[in-house]
Amino acid sequence: MRPSRIVSLCPSNTEILFAIGAGEHVVGVDSYSDYPPPVRNLPRVGPDLRVSIDKVKALEPDLVIASLTVPGMERNIEGLEKAGISHIVLNPSSIEETLEDIVTLGEVTERPEEAQKLVDKIRETIHLIESRRKESPLRPRLYWEWWPDPLISACRLSWVNDMSEVVGGVNIFSHIEKTSSVVELSDIATQDPDILLICWCGTKMQEKMSKDKILSRTGWENIKGIREKKVYCIPEPLFGRPGPRIADGLKMLSKIVHPEIFGRLEDS
Predict the structure, then answer these.
(1) Would you give the distance in Å from CA 45 to the centre of its chain?
(2) Alpha helices in 48-194 (DSSP H)
(3) Domain boundary assignment for the chain
(4) At the N or C end, where does the chain have fewer CB atoms within 10 A?
């Protein structure tokens, strides 16, 4: 039976639900869900790592869409299980798994056709970018920064690793079999990335991002991407949320990695 009262505990899940037309049944969300705009008027059940199970329960959901995309979210799952609240857990680590999650939510909300249309649209974007980026033999090396202190970077088991490959780039930490990892400046210097992608997590941290701040870091001056000033502060919602807007993220990333093919970012 189609759930009529859904609570989403993760921005990416919220965005998927609205993108497939199930938004009318969402009665509550986590503190960071902010898109599409109607989401901002919904009741909040707390930040992703400190969800209030009491607030969730008060909304009387017949289904909760939980997540494990951030370390520590396990507590939410434990709380839901202890309270006997019906839920499913999504934990994608690749583009393909993200598309599978869209299909899954289409099934549980009884909107399979809408979900498949969304998946097809994202695949179309992927195929278009992959076919065009083959025009260049260059494979720029990318450093992804999720957090500045300690330095946390995306690794192989992350959807942005896939995004890097789709646009014709190489994630410098793709050899690490984790979703993300604390790294040292020496590790980054050894890998010598061509491009630095600064994508700090959370709205407050996003507001603090600055290209000049990164360029002036002590000890970073010999890194190629710093010398050539190829530092990009990019929006976390397009890269940190494995959902519908990864297509928008890919379009932006393609312009950063291969401007000679896709056009420069500032021209778009």
Answers:
(1) 21
(2) 53-58, 74-83, 95-108, 112-133, 159-166, 185-191
(3) 6-91, 137-267
(4) N
The string of pLDDT tens digits covering residues 162-188 is 999 999 999 999 999 999 999 999 999
197 strand-pairing partners: 144, 232
What are the two backbone dihedrals, phi and then psi, of residue 87, each rounded to the nearest 5 degrees? -155, 160
Determine if the peptide bond prior to 150 is cis (ω within 30°): yes
Number of helical (H) and strand (E) elements in the chain, helices listed first = 13, 11
Q: CA 200, CA 160: separation in Å to the nearest integer? A: 13
**Second-level CATH architecture of 6-91:** 3-Layer(aba) Sandwich (3.40)
Q: Domain 137-267 is in which class? A: alpha beta
Specify the residue for token string 């199930």: 22
Same topology, domains 6-91 and 137-267? Answer is yes
